[in-house]
Protein: PfkB family carbohydrate kinase
Organism: Gaopeijia maritima
Amino acid sequence: MIPTPMSILVVGSVALDTVDTPFGSADRVLGGSANYFAAAASLFEAASVRMVGVVGADYPMADLDFLAGRGVDLTGIEQAAGESFSWKGRYHYDLNSRDTLWTRLGVFAEFQPRIPEAFRASKHVFLGNIDPVLQLDVLDQVESPELVACDTMNFWIEGSRDALLKLLARVDLIMVNDAEARQLADEPNLLKAARWIRERGPKWVVIKKGEHGAMLYADERIFFVPGFPLESVYDPTGAGDAFAGGFMGYLASAPTIDTTALRAAMVYGSATGSFAVEAFSVDRFRTLGIGEVARRVDDFREMTFFEHDTSTIHG
């Protein structure tokens, strides 16, 4: 018997990126949190991904056909008059830092998420990096999801803090990078910052550290997964959203969301995030299959597993 796919609603940006790195460049290619998330989450057969976002009249909608071909429901993508959200950035040599050269919000500036009726009963919800006021509005439109996860950034932490704190009380999981966690909690120690965030509502906190991996804080336990070592890295844009997509995509196939499932989701998320950086835009996902993801998960296991009898050192 084939299990019923788990519905995952993602609400976020659907953008056009122009990216310069020391290893190449790309002009007006698919970007945005919703695109990267959906590209990763839709790799999992148990995930039925639904996208909500807005684009302008200039958006190359045909470029999203590969997502539709993998079962992603794009009926929540609104095409409005005007130009699409676009961004240009230049990465430094180590790819850990970048300069934003310009940001053009276009129709995204007036984005008011309208969740289609057919999407409102989605079991899992991922709130991409948008204004927390809009994230709260999305939660007012959905019907009793089993899992709500969100992302945010320093801009919202500084400028919409009150709304963000209200959001924390309504989500199960938050994904932030290390700098954002410290800023949100006003605490330099990541363990204390994670505890502060959990006390505001989320049961689980994921802190991403780029090429250095990610950490899961649940109860008083910590689980760490390293970044996957790669020889060829072209574009780190969207790696965090691809991590989130792999994380949520894996949970869609888990019989229950417990510590074991969350730890496995961390590894699958790290795997999909690592594929994102191997090409510009979402191009690596166009030909990627779940078998290749599973093999990379096996590589993670091989890199981190060891057997050791502590009695040999203390009798």
Remarks:
- The longest strand covers residues 47-55.
